[in-house]
Amino acid sequence: MPAARDSNVVSIAQLRQSCRSCSLRDLCLPLGLGADDMQKLESIVHSRGPIRSGEHLFREGDAFHALYAVKSGAVKTYTIDNQGREHVLGFHIAGEVAGLDGIHSGRNRCNAVALQATTVCAVPFARLEQVIHEVPGLQAQMLRIMSRELSASAQLATDHSAEERLAGFLLSLSKRYARRGLPPDLLSLPMPRRDLASHLRLATETISRLFARFQEDGLVSVRRREVQILDAEALEALGGSFLPDGDGQRRSPQLR
Amino acid sequence: MPAARDSNVVSIAQLRQSCRSCSLRDLCLPLGLGADDMQKLESIVHSRGPIRSGEHLFREGDAFHALYAVKSGAVKTYTIDNQGREHVLGFHIAGEVAGLDGIHSGRNRCNAVALQATTVCAVPFARLEQVIHEVPGLQAQMLRIMSRELSASAQLATDHSAEERLAGFLLSLSKRYARRGLPPDLLSLPMPRRDLASHLRLATETISRLFARFQEDGLVSVRRREVQILDAEALEALGGSFLPDGDGQRRSPQLR
DNA sequence: TTCCGGAGTTGATTTGGATCAATTCTGGAC
DNA sequence: GTCCAGAATTGATCCAAATCAACTCCGGAA
């Protein structure tokens, strides 16, 4: 398979260490693929060197041509509505994919910006579609990923109190960190309060006050962007009805 | 291709008139497929006779085994959270698909209930995956559909005023009706106020008051569930920043 | 036809969270 | 180190929408 038409590749060495040795290998797209299938996927991705905080991966309205798998760091996706207001759609940490919403229209539906120094794999979609077709396991994985995003997004759209939303968000972030092998009780938030507030449809002041209250109640310990979860059960009691992580098992509703 | 293992088929005749003559043929999954590809898809779907209002297509927690394409009528999807509160995730009219969020976990992530007499195609997912693999056009269409749902859901999760949400919803419903060939200015809402309110994270009273105001302002004419759009431009001015239809073209933000 | 119960509307009141308004941190830049 | 601008916190006030409370309007059932 020719390695032609690679524009942004940083170096041969970096390309070579792509998927096979990537830390995302069992969490990103290639989940459950054999060595040769992995090879196929590897041959199309562009590993992109450190993207600095504030740099954009893509912008709303751009022609959609690639998905972006985050290898390290964190990315925020957002839109600017026709009143000029920013809406934060989500955050993408290592092992997660951004850009899926651009597929259907052929244009990116949101902006994606690095929240910190970040490395990503750009996966050209046209070529991905070919590889998907050749590798059935990849097709299934792709559908699973999109389905999970859909679940998470639908959950995020539901009606809950500020308290429930923040508690739920912390729990979901904790699970996502755990999936990455990070300690689930020690969250280092990659985003400022403003972005977190926008994502949860709250004011930054409300976030601040809720953190203060959660801390008073011994649920968490918060210092700037470092959040330590002290009482996951209590947090679950508050935010259990709102877990936008896309695969929290449904707790059975209390019928009483 | 054997027609074996069909359990819920209503009659041979009904099966035979499946996809090829179905009114959804260019709007549902088989978009852009040739006759033989259509044949493949047709061979796996189960056309299900009239489902009465209030009957469920599937329930949260059930094993996921099929997608449901609505042929006529309307379906509501919803969850019950662990506090016993209902959250309406969305409405599915003719030509739209429900159940996509169940793919990743192998369990349905929500309940789906008919809002009126409804007919659907049940598409067994395991078999759909095979057909998708054999028909590249179907693979692309499947990804497009999921991407569109994702866009719509993300948009729905954003922060907007009650006014913007209702106006945006009406516009999006109008577009969806238009896509079905129905007059885009004459909306017959399939859902009661309560469901619409839940979906838009509002109280039924707020919906009522907004409809009254929109009517006073000459934007719409509302009588029970019959809504006539009188001034689409004015409605667009109110709800243009919130169009959860998944493929409204982005209006460029006013930078001033 | 009358009756009835759920759906919808309308009005009064309350409230969760936004907004407005100061401070207080704090991590760089120099 | 000092300075500074953005980030975060904290307090006071306001307001959009929820809640509470009647009341009206149907669309069937009998």
Task: Record keyword descriptors for this entry.
DNA-binding; alpha+beta; four-stranded antiparallel sheet; 8 helices; homodimer
Q: Biggest sheet of chain A, in brief?
A: 4 strands, antiparallel
The chain-level structural class of chain A is alpha+beta
The general outline of chain A is globular
Average pLDDT figure of chain A = 85
**SSE series of chain A:** HHEEEEEEEEHHHEHHEEH
Per DSSP, the total helix count of chain A is: 8
Number of strands of chain A: 11
How large is the radius of gyration of chain A? 19 Å
Helix content of chain A: 25-40%
- End-to-end separation of chain A in angstroms reads 61 Å
Unreliable sequence segments of chain A = 1-16, 248-256
Strand content of chain A: 15-25%
Strand order, biggest sheet of chain A?
Answer: 1-8-3-6
Largest interface: A-B, 59 and 59 residues
Query: What is the quaternary state of this protein?
Result: homodimer
What is the topological layout?
2 copies of one chain form a homodimer.
Chain A: H1 12-16, H2 35-42, E1 46-51, E2 56-58, E3 66-72, E4 74-80, E5 86-93, E6 97-98, E7 111-114, E8 118-124, H3 125-134, H4 136-156, H5 162-179, E9 186-188, H6 193-199, H7 204-216, E10 220-223, E11 226-229, H8 232-239
Antiparallel strand pairs in A: 1-8, 2-7, 3-6, 3-8, 4-5, 4-7, 9-11, 10-11
Helix pairs in contact in A: 3-4, 5-8, 6-7
The structure holds a DNA duplex (30 and 30 nucleotides).
